[in-house]
Structure formats: C-alpha cells, structure tokens
Amino acid sequence: MARLSKRRKNIMKEHREGALYPLADAIQVVTRCATARFDESIDVAVHLGVDPKRSEQNVRGALVLPHGSGKNVRVGVFCSEAKQDEAKKAGADIVGGVELVEAILSGGALGFDRCVATPDMMPEVGKLGRILGPRGLMPNPKLGNVTDNVGKVVKDMKGGQVSFKTEKNAIVHTSVGRASFTPKALEDNVQALVDALRKAKPSGVKGQYIKRMSMSSSMGLGVAISVSSIGTGRGT
Description:
Layout: H1 6-14, E1 20-21, H2 23-33, E2 41-48, E3 60-64, E4 75-78, H3 81-89, E5 94-96, H4 98-105, E6 114-117, H5 122-125, H6 129-132, H7 150-158, E7 161-165, E8 171-178, H8 183-199, E9 210-217, E10 223-225
Parallel strand pairs: 1-10, 4-5, 4-6
Antiparallel strand pairs: 2-8, 2-9, 3-7, 9-10
C-alpha cells in the first residue's frame, strides 16, 4: 500500500467521508485543503436527473461568473475582415478568416482556449470539426459563440464566462474560480452556475433535476454539497 504524504493526511483530516456539507462549509473545507504550490482551480460537479442519451435532454449553455473564473483565457475569433477590428479591440488573442482556418488545417497551433465565429464563417470553420470538436472548442449557436456580436462575446469570455454541458453520465463539470478567491466570491459563482442550470432545465424532465453536487480543488478531495443550501428554485 502506498504511503500517504503529510499533505494528503492533513487533507483527509479536514474531510468527513460521506458528509453532506452546506455550500459555505464545503467552500471552507475545499479551500483549506488547497495547499498546493499554485493557485488551485475550484471545480464543481453537478449530477442532473436527465437522460443524456436523449438529445432533447442534453443540458448546455454558458454564463459569465460574477467574480470571473480566475483564468487567463485566450480567445480566437473566426470572422471576415469587416469584424476583425471589433474582435481585436475587445481583446481577442487570435483573429482571422479563411486564412486562419487554412493555417490550422495545415497543422498550425491553435493558440486559443475558447473561440467565436460569425455565422458567415461557419461553413469554413466546419472544416475544423475533427480538430476543434474533440477539444470542446467547436463554435455552437446554443453556446452563444456563433454570433455577429463578436465584441461582446469576446469581452464575456475574457471576463470570466464559462460553458457547461452534460457528459455521458449526466454530470456537468466546470470551474467556479480559484482557491485564492474569497469564500463569498466562490459562493456567488456557484449560485450563478446553479441558477443557469435551473434555467436550462429541459421541459420534459420530471422528478428531481439537480440530484447531487460536489466541489473539489485541483489537487484535493471531493466534498459533497447539500443542494438545498443553494438558494431556491423550481425543479431542485
């Protein structure tokens, strides 16, 4: 049996296995356990009462976290020349049209973590499906990143917008900030995520919608959160 490090033993002392924590308490436990030598990401996993095999029950969307994500997000924009100045002024890191698509197809580095495309560019961007798709970067109208309003979307992405979608086990997993955030900032960000999930609830879903939640840091243990401790809303 592998020996537990001192750090791991200290983390396990903080965590009561099987316990269900109110959100504020869960944040305290998770951030106290985030003792790595870098500013750990604070992540939330939400198990939804949906059937991901049914396309009409796939939950996906995007929101701007009230206190940002704490990440330096590189944004790429696929647009015509007429929109390129707008994208650059909004803070986009990489901007281009057909030539950018061709450069990526030729093996060029992506150089971005999120991307936006104008509707007229989608026939060209579609050629990148095998490259962008597996990385979760393919622009999608449902996520709001296929738009002519590139300036606003770029600013949102740079300012802390996160996207979410159900994985095959009906779980949504996303970052809600960093260990250096104040407890109040993390609590506000989690509340905003839950509100967005409630708003995105498919009309055909019956019974309990948000079934379970947990929070963890990059190098820490998962802590179960009491869903009833996060505001109120229909369908929880």
